[in-house]
Structures are given as structure tokens and as C-alpha cells.
Design brief:
By secondary structure, this protein is of the alpha/beta class. 42% of the residues lie in helices and 15% in strands. α10 packs across α13. It catalyses: (sulfur carrier)-H + L-cysteine = (sulfur carrier)-SH + L-alanine.
Length: 377
């Protein structure tokens, strides 16, 4: 069975050119970039070149990039690094953040901090005015994601950034899902910290970066060597970082083309369901182009996903199945409430590298068939 992968928001396949470069770097670049001999200097040169590419991709300066192991570490460094450095005990975030942010904030609550979890409307959007109302004299950090990983809603980050400009409050955004899909300029967004991960845009897993605006202080969380300007100890993963930069270069060159392609996929998918008489609604507005989250009337998500999987289609929901119990998507709960039908019948399709129009059409047809069959039961 030739599977159709529609879960690119969870992780993405590596681009063939990235795989080739990564393999070559693994074989050929083994020096420690902190070493002063020629082998180490070769690794340092590759590291510096990658840092420059990544900094340029968001309008930053090279020293403002801290290499990490991915989005979770970047989020944790931003949140805990700020909390340990600044005086004050109040943090503002949203109810729909990734768990790398939410669980970090909950840990700080257990340590005596106060966290305001901003609501979202039924479109999955935070209101900048709610941020303004929640601000206090002791607010040290606002952390709101750029693009939601479940429903794709793009948050008003630039508006929030303008609101916070000139204050002592640090502004962080988790851009893991949006990076490589949306154009990002840290000065336009007015963010102090920004998290990114390679595996969401056809790079390797286990590598990412945190943008740290010059003058924004962070406490060190890992101790050892003096790598990353003493901000993150540990020998840098040069092959993965180099492959990350390659993936970003490819993404930047093809972003507009891919955006148009993904929007076409969405329209084909929805038209196919409409033509088949499937009753559904789209969750979220102002979405990332590669995410399509649908609430399909009459289905239960567990059996729906199983049937899709048996048909060779990989998709996902925001729910986690553990030993027969369901933890509903916290994003959909925040949008619709705990009793809403949407938390039991919503599925996320997400598009990316390797998909064709024919595959998307086939997946949509299978989705329609399964939806109608399950709705009859």
C-alpha cells in the first residue's frame, strides 16, 4: 500500500537534498567547532555559515541565534531563562499554546509564579486587547505562539509586540509551526525571543534554535562548556545544523509556490467533501496555509482515524488516546468548550513535501467515503 502522508504539522520528511548534505556532513565533518586546529576550524566555518543563513531567514543578526535540540528546548530556555533572570512573578500566555510552553508555565506556577492563560475566540485567535488588560507591573514575560499547530490560527503577534514595545516585559513567540511557511521578520513582529525547530520544514529532528534579541537577558540552563556564547553548553551538532540551514534555504526559495499549492490542496479537499454531501465545518480562521482542521458531523474521531489509517492515509487529531480514554484537544476545548461536538469529531490534515494533487484528491475521496459510512452507524 502506498501511503498518503497528511500529517506534516506533526513532523515532515527530510528533503532529498537535505538528506544528501546531512549524510556527507556526518561522514566528513567530525571536528569539534571549539577546537583551534584545522579540523575544528572547518567545523566552525560550517557552523558559522549555517548560523548566518538562519539569522537572515528571520531578519536577525548572527549572534542572536542560539542552537538548541529543537522547539521544546527553545521554548523552555525562553521561559525558564527569562523567569530566572527577571524580577517579578507574573507571566501571560494563551490557552492554546503547545505543551512545551503550557507545561513549562505550569511548572513555574508550582514554583510560586502566577500565570494568566488568555482565552481565544471560536476562531482560535487571541485578542491583543486581552494581553493589554492582563498586563501588570510584575509581568515579566508574554509568550504567545505565532501559528497554532492544531487549527493553524495565526496570532496577532505584531500587534502584541507593538503593545509591549518600550516596556520591561519580555515577548516570546513559539514559531515552530509557522517557520518556513510564513515570512518572519523579528523586527516587524517586535519579539525578543522566538523558537524554531528543523523537523517541521524538512530538516532533521533534534535541532532547532532560539532567537534572542540583543539586550534580552536569559539565565543559563545547562552548564559545561562555553558554547553558544555561554548561553547553551554542549558541543554543537554541526551536521544537523548544516542540514537545518539547507532545509531553510530550500524553504525560503519555494515558500510562495508551496503556499499556493497548499491552498489549492485545501480547496480540492473541501470541494470533494462538498460534492459528496459530507457535512463539516472548518476549525480556525486566519490559518497557516498547510493546515486544514475539519469538524465532520456524525463521526467519532478514534474510529475515523483508524479507518483512515487502514485506507493508507496518515492524519491526526488533537486528542490523545491512552488505554481507551480520550484527552480532548486543549485547543478545541479553548475554542468551543468542554461539551462541544467539535472536540470529538475534528481531524487535522496537514500538507507538505512529496504530496501531489492526485494523492490529495484520493485522500479526500477516501475521507468522504469513510465519513458517510461512519455517520450511518
Amino acid at each position: 500500500m502506498n501511503r498518503i502522508y497528511l500529517d506534516h504539522a506533526a513532523t515532515s520528511p527530510m528533503h532529498p537534498e537535505v538528506v544528501e548534505l546531512f549524510s556527507n556532513r556526518l561522514a566528513e565533518v567530525y571536528g569539534n567547532p571549539s577546537s583551534i586546529h584545522g579540523t575544528g576550524r572547518e567545523a566552525r566555518k560550517i557552523l558559522d555559515e549555517a548560523r548566518s543563513i538562519l539569522a537572515k531567514s528571520i531578519g536577525a543578526d548572527d549572534p542572536e541565534i542560539i542552537f538548541t535540540s529543537g522547539g521544546t528546548e527553545s521554548d523552555n530556555l525562553a521561559i525558564f531563562g527569562t523567569a530566572l533572570k527577571k524580577e517579578g512573578k507574573h507571566i501571560i500566555t494563551s490557552q492554546i499554546e503547545h505543551h512545551a510552553v503550557l507545561h513549562a508555565c505550569q511548572k513555574l506556577e508550582r514554583d510560586g509564579y502566577e500565570v494568566t492563560y488568555l482565552p481565544v475566540d471560536s476562531d482560535g485567535l487571541v485578542k491583543a486587547d486581552d494581553v493589554k488588560k492582563a498586563l501588570r507591573d510584575d509581568t515579566i514575560l508574554v509568550t504567545v505562539m505565532l501559528g497554532n499547530n492544531e487549527v493553524g490560527s495565526v496570532q496577532p503577534i505584531a500587534e502584541i509586540g507593538a503593545l509591549l514595545e518600550g516596556t520591561e516585559t519580555v515577548f516570546h513567540t513559539d514559531a515552530v509551526q509557522a517557520y518556513g511557511v510564513l515570512p518572519i521578520d523579528v523586527d516587524e513582529l517586535k519579539v525578543d525571543l522566538l523558537s524554531v525547530s528543523a523537523h517541521k520544514l524538512n530538516g532533521p529532528k533534534g535541532v532547532g534554535f532560539l532567537y534572542q534579541r540583543k539586550g534580552t537577558n536569559l539565565a543559563q540552563l545547562s552548564y559545561g562548556g562555553e558554547q553558544e556564547r555561554k548561553r547553551r553548553a554542549g558541543t554543537e551538532n554541526v551536521p544537523a545544523i548544516s542540514a537545518f540551514a539547507k532545509a531553510v534555504s530550500i524553504s525560503m526559495e519555494s515558500r510562495e509556490e508551496k503556499t499556493a499549492e497548499y491552498e489549492q490542496y485545501k480547496e480540492i479537499f473541501k470541494k470533494t467533501l462538498n460534492d459528496a454531501g459530507v457535512v463539516y465545518k472548518e476549525n480556525g480562521k486566519q490559518q497557516l496555509p498547510h493546515i486544514l482542521n475539519l469538524s465532520i458531523e456524525g463521526i467519532e474521531i478514534e474510529s475515523f482515524l483508524v479507518n483512515l489509517d487502514l485506507s493508507g492515509i496518515s492524519a491526526s487529531s488533537g486528542s490523545a488516546c491512552t488505554a481507551g480514554s480520550i484527552d480532548p484537544s486543549h485547543v478545541l476545548v479553548a475554542m468551543y468548550g468542554e461539551e462541544a461536538e467539535e472536540i470529538r469529531n475534528s481531524i487535522r490534515f496537514s500538507f507538505g513535501l512529496g504530496l501531489t494533487l492526485e494523492q490529495v484528491l484520493k485522500a479526500a475521496e477516501k475521507t468522504a467515503q469513510i465519513s458517510k459510512r461512519l455517520a450511518l452507524k
